[in-house]
Amino acid sequence: MDVTVVLDAWAILALLQNESAAARVGEAMASGSVAASAINLGEVHYRQIRVVGASRADAVTADLRRTLTVVDPDWELVLAASAVKARGGLSFADAFCIATAARLGAPAWTGDREIVAAADRAGVEVVDLRA
Fold it and tell me: What is the mean pLDDT of each run of 10 residues along the chain (131 residues)?
């Protein structure tokens, strides 16, 4: 799997909502070498349900699944995310972003302050898309 970037839900939502990081995320996705944890994609899905309804959210998520490499968690990834979460300071979904980036050896892209703050402790490169 040749992945150069792991996207957090924050980054994907920035793209969908045409926020300031949208162009950068869109360019990365166009490269075809972008991944996201299924857990983080699930986070995008439930947030989209709240905004655009279930039918549209299903369609958006299906499109994303065709564009991204979606990393489904196996037991080893669950354990890695659990270890990240145990250090404190972020949600379990955010821990999956960090654990996925560590597994793939790729930077995590996000604007989530908690992930940015936890990056040093986790030993993963994090690109803060708010900068």
Answer: 92 96 95 96 98 97 96 98 93 96 96 88 91 80
Q: Which of 53, 7, 55, 54 minimizes the C-alpha distance to 30?
A: 7
**Residue with tokens 């404190």, as numbered in its chain:** 88
Alpha helices in the chain (DSSP H): 9-16, 22-30, 38-52, 54-67, 75-86, 92-104, 113-122
Order of all β-strands in the sheet with 126-128: 69-71, 34-37, 5-7, 108-110, 126-128
Domains and CATH numbers, the chain: 5-128 (3.40.50.1010)
List 109's β-bridge partners, or say none. 7, 127
Instruction: Give the integer Cα–Cα distance in Å for 116 and 33.
Output: 22
How far apart are the C-alpha atoms of 95 and 73, rounded to whole Å?
12
Q: Decide if 37 contacts 71 (C-beta within 8 A).
A: yes
